[in-house]
Specification:
Elements lengths: L6 E5 L3 E6 L11 E6 L1 H11 L3 E9 L2 H12 L3 E8 L6 E8 L5 E8 L10 H4 L2 H9 L2 E5 L2 H4 L1 H12 L6 E5 L11 H14 L2 E5 H8 L4 H7 L5 E6 L2 E6 L2 E6 L11 H14 L4 H15 L9
Parallel strand pairs: 1-4, 1-8, 2-6, 4-5, 8-9, 9-10, 10-11
Antiparallel strand pairs: 2-3, 6-7, 11-12, 12-13
Length: about 300
């Protein structure tokens, strides 16, 4: 990709997903397929597939899983030079349990093993490393989510540092991604933290269920009234999306496509929309691009597009 093209930097934890080879209880599953996972990393791969120059800012363990993840980034055309290697903490992972549905698709349930992972030690110091700071200085877009600040006090401080930087030429994108298990026992604190980040971002993505859980409403007009600052606000569900660009509003239906499993489709949709914004598409055009890329995440049990 030309060096002059806009650069997107995705900040958050990458994980290895061990996906059950067949539907059924984990205790009955003998075989698992390994793949890359993590909301921001999924978005990075989809952005690169859309022709956007993309880098990931993160940390992985000095282990086989960490080496697999960075190799996957490179294989998909994503810059991994700002992914730090932790020689003590492991790479996070999760196991995806599959349950068959009557329509032929499957539902995925994630079982996380990420406590004490290398990425949970992300901190403001991570952002000040020479490679990371150079990428952030050049970035036209930084993409984050509500997962990272839930991992530890230092990851919260790192995301706060990103939001505190004054860079009027950079878009700050925030995907709500409410994970109640990560906020267990401190749900009210989590809702307040994520509401604050949403209010200060330039682009906000939220599903209707997540918006209801965090903000107390899933109505797009009510959400726009509550969050007037972000230039772009997108409210999504399985049927489609409502998007705001300032005072402009657009609605679009999801594309009719076979569905194997839905996890990761939201990350791909966000990437498509952001790619549209970075390349100068209209609000309607950016929405259409989001839906097109989302369909590519629906056709497999992997979390990212290929």
């Amino acid at each position: 990709m030309p060096v002059s093209s806009p650069l997107a930097v995705c900040f958050g934890e990458g994980m290895v997903a061990l996906v059950a080879a067949s539907a059924g209880p984990l205790e009955d599953c003998r075989t698992f397929h390994r793949s890359l996972a993590g909301a921001e990393w999924n978005t990075a791969i989809a952005l690169a597939s859309a022709g956007i120059r993309t880098a990931v800012l993160s940390r992985v363990g000095d282990d086989g899983f960490g080496r697999f993840l960075t190799a996957e980034l490179r294989a998909h055309g994503v810059d991994d030079t700002a992914v730090e290697i932790d020689h003590d903490a492991p790479t996070g992972l999760y196991v995806k349990e599959l349950s068959a549905r009557t329509d032929g698709a499957v539902d995925g349930t994630m079982h996380y093993y990420r406590s004490g992972s290398a990425a949970s030690a992300l901190s403001p110091q991570t952002l000040r490393g020479p490679v990371a700071s150079a990428l952030l200085a050049e970035a036209s877009l930084v993409h984050t989510s509500g997962i990272t600040p839930a991992l530890s006090a230092s990851t919260l401080a790192a995301q706060e540092a990103l939001f505190a930087e004054e860079r009027p030429d950079r878009l700050l994108s925030f995907d709500l991604n409410w994970r109640p298990a990560l906020w267990r026992g401190r749900e009210a604190e989590g809702r307040a933290i994520l509401s604050d980040f949403a209010g200060r971002a330039d682009v906000v993505f939220c599903t209707r269920p997540d918006a209801e859980a965090v903000f107390g409403t899933s109505d797009p007009q009510e959400l726009r009234a509550r969050f007037p600052h972000p230039r772009y606000l997108l409210v999504t569900d399985s049927r489609g999306a409502v998007a705001f660009d300032g005072a402009e509003t657009a609605e679009s239906d999801a594309l009719d496509t076979p569905v194997v499993e839905t996890i990761g489709a939201g990350d791909a949709f966000a990437a498509g929309f952001l790619a549209g914004v970075l390349t100068g598409l209209s609000l309607t055009g950016s929405l259409a691009r989001g839906h097109r890329i989302a369909t590519r995440a629906l056709v497999s049990t992997r979390d990212h597009v290929d």
